[in-house]
Amino acid sequence: MQWTKKRINNILFFVGVIVVVVMLFTFDVSFPELWQHICDAGKWMIPIVGVWFFVYGINALSWRQVIRGNCKDADKVSFWRIFKLTITGYALNYATPVGGLGGEPYRILELSRDVNKQEATSSVILYAMMHIFAHFWLWFTSIFIWLALVAYGDPDVKLNTLYGTLLGIAFVFCLIAFYLFSRGYKNGLVIKTLRLIGKIPGLKGWSQRFLEKHSEALQNVDRQIAALHQQDKKAFYSSFLLEYLSRIVQSLEIMFMLLSIGINGGGGIEGYILTFLHSVLILAFTSLFANLIGFLPLQLGVQEGGFMLSIAALGLSAATGMFVSIICRVREIIWIAIGLLLMKIE
Q1: Domain range spanning residue 268?
Q2: CB neighbours of 238 closer than 8 A, spacing ≥ 6?
Q3: Cβ-proximal residues to 250 (8 Å cutoff; 6+ apart), any chain
Q4: Do 102 and 93 touch, CB atoms closer than 8 A?
Q5: In a domain? residue 203
Q6: For residue 195, is it within any domain?
Q7: Residues 87-132: tens digit of each pLDDT
Q8: DSSP sequence for 75-125
Q9: Count of domains in the chain?
Q10: Helix, strand, coil distribution of the chain in percent, nearest 5
Q11: Which of 26, 66, 174, 275 lies at a 20 to 30 A Cα distance from 240?
Q12: pTM for this model (two decimals)
């Protein structure tokens, strides 16, 4: 079994390395232009990269709350081990197709060294749900941030028929998602998801065999998912609030990028607040766009398109959108490299 885990670890590691190398040679700009963008960011590259130490730290705290509320042997898992698995898991998610195809299985594999496999599986699934749930709340609250800025008279934020329609669709979409999440948290969702997969042509037989073979284990995982929401509400809501906070802290990255090229909302406290709120909106729209098309490694082209559209919606230039997307890509590659290196550190 240990040999199998080591083999899977090596496969994921080499997949990540290959994708990073591919990304280094597939930037939308030449290396001289890339270097010029990095030089334009200058000293701001330090907080741009460094803020993710705090983002991942908050993510790790959120996941720790889930583990504590879900695992009998949670005390065996130190915060720093969770922190390491958080960074590496996200690195693999960035580097592999279909979002969690690499990161979540890796976290289950590693966490099962400290707690039993069913608890590890339910903890990872619960945290993944919490991560997505917090994204929906970011999108939901961003609707009201947009409306508040319109009411404030921000000239960069408009409310016409097109934007009103899009905000209305987003509002309804989030409400539907909240309902589905509430059902999943109350009743579990693993078995229902596998049954849904079984309706896809060609996967019905596999789904039925998997459900029959692992029926008891899957029911236990679903019970553990439901138990956190029903029995340990403190762990549930503290995990959610921490995960939502990490999305807000992440917005500082975009704010630092805008400040590095002189976009500060006119300066002063009011200008910095406006720039930060604009950054939240840019992050919300870009993450929504990227998650809708989440099957590409490193979100190739998707993230860039999301930044271009969201920044254009706030009246900023295409050059600004290109700058932000490229610097964001550089930061991702740095943290992916850190995550891959951590895979090889015991």
Answers
A1: 2-190+233-343
A2: 62, 65
A3: 51, 52, 55, 283
A4: yes
A5: no
A6: no
A7: 999 988 877 655 555 688 889 888 988 888 888 888 888 898 899 8
A8: GGS-HHHHHHHHHHHHHHHHHSSTTHHHHHHHHHHHHTTTS-HHHHHHHHH
A9: 1
A10: 85, 0, 15
A11: 275
A12: 0.86
